[in-house]
Amino acid sequence: MARTGGNKNLQAKLVLLGDMGTGKTSLVLRFVKGQFQDYQESTIGAAFFTQVLSLNEATIKFDIWDTAGQERYHSLAPMYYRGAAAAVVIYDITSMDSFMRAKKWVQELQAQGNPNVVMFLAANKADLEEKRKVGVEEGEQYAKENGMFFVETSAKTAQNVNELFYEIELSFESMSDANKLEAI
Amino acid sequence: MDEEYDVVVLGTGLKECILSGLLSVNGLKVLHMDRNEYYGGESTSLNLNQLWKRFRDGDKPPERLGSSKEYNVDMIPKFMMANGALVRVLIHTDVTKYLNFKAVDGSFVYNKGKIHKVPANDVEALKSPLMGLFEKRRARKFFIYVQDYEDNDPKSHEGLDLNKVTARDLISRYGLDDNTVEFIGHALALYRNDAYLDEPALDFVKRVKLYAESLARFQGGSPYIYPLYGLGELPQGFARLSAVYGGTYMLGKPECKVEFDENGKAFGVTSEGETAKCKKVVCDPSYLPNKVKKVGKVARAICFMSHPIPNTNDSHSAQVILPQKQLGRRSDMYLFCCSYSHNIAPKGKYIAFVLTEAETDDPRVELKPGIDLLGPVDEIFFDTYDRFEPTNQHDVDNCFISTSYDATTHFETTVQDVIAMYSKITGKDLDLSVDLSAASAAADSEE
Question: Is B309 part of a structural domain of the chain?
């Protein structure tokens, strides 16, 4: 839940959605720790990160929720979506299947999440251009139709990873200006 | 699921989810399945559509109750003692970070037809209309003894060995009358019958202390706390813990048949033609109906209201205990009320439960004394459910079965069962000596 503390200190819950192996944990680790591992194990032991970002006059503390593998058999609990201010839906550009599944995650989010949640679509593994199965336009088009921000990322090369989180923060700032954050 | 696991857990009720979380943290490989599509089993929280589907045969809920999605109505309503065992488990496992809690406004007891605030310390005892002038002073002395009592400080024992002295003897030492003993025993120490009077007084004193210390924690009107969005959040939080430590989750799995070898030992669970092999099976009574026996029945009424329970000082959340003798019954009755202030209903709406161990087959008549205290209700559901206890021997069949949830509106008995099961499953004791201030910090930072 995004909350205003004093003096433009915001706290915001951010959730990651997407099928197994799309790089959810890798994206967060790249953002939070600046690290990447080619063979990131399925998420065990750490599925909750906090990261503070400062921008202009505001500071945002992100509570980032990873799925902890509960997406595997579609057993993600409703509490996961509860109070999320932003959601990043992730697919792998080398897998059309993961793109189709990303659309399902968006529907799930629209059904379960709060109506003001800001949604981002991240087309991950953009470094694997030679294996690309999902075109940039396809992702862009779908994001546009569903009111989502769209960005192609690579946790491996760090392409657009900081930019993605920077965008998320910007969207919170503009929301907090409109005093919407507390309403979430 | 064709893999081999240390433990397969069946049912995602609170007890099973706590166990699943603790076992995963302990390094065991856990597969956790539920026949339902949702988390929580019997201890889930339902929205209006789900409630009407369950109790009104699929009728649509009336529009005046507001949006279905804004309701989280507990099927097993309970409050958490702020210093109690469940809070210790939550801190021990760090599941507090997934949940937000808020103090419960009021804790009351029913006496001679009226609702009174439960006095829990020497100062409150002097103000309470529950007692006459001289009784107040006697109660005050008793509360001071309890507050000062420390296990490891013999001076505070006043020459009494509470492992030997019975609760009855301790009480008679302070000359408390039956009326006072009743509210202390049932509304503070939370005993469900009077058998404790002939047991060593130590447990009694510790329970009263727990109540008083929990009350002091949040400066609220009660010793209880409750999660925002309802208790259904708790099993989800522990399930997440289990998943974070490698537990695998599958919902909506039909059948979940426990497989036994020729020696009667469980070795796996089959669903949809696949068998997950395991060393141990943990489940709620509904998954092994041949290994449990019925031990009782809970009668309950779920009431939708647009006002708090009358005479509870406008409490947006409250517990009222109606001791057995006040109603001429063999078991206590409990009122539980929660509202929009804990995000379980839309603004202005309250949900009240009336619960008791059923002594007849007619919940409508049996629950009437409790329902009469609620004032007008917008909607009311009556329901009963059977309570089961395991009859198996886990060293013979590798099965660990939880006991059904009782009618109490607090968690102390629930956690006792979980802790005992954990020890049986792992052969280890659960160390719950945690820094309780972690909970207070977490709770204080909300709202």
Answer: yes
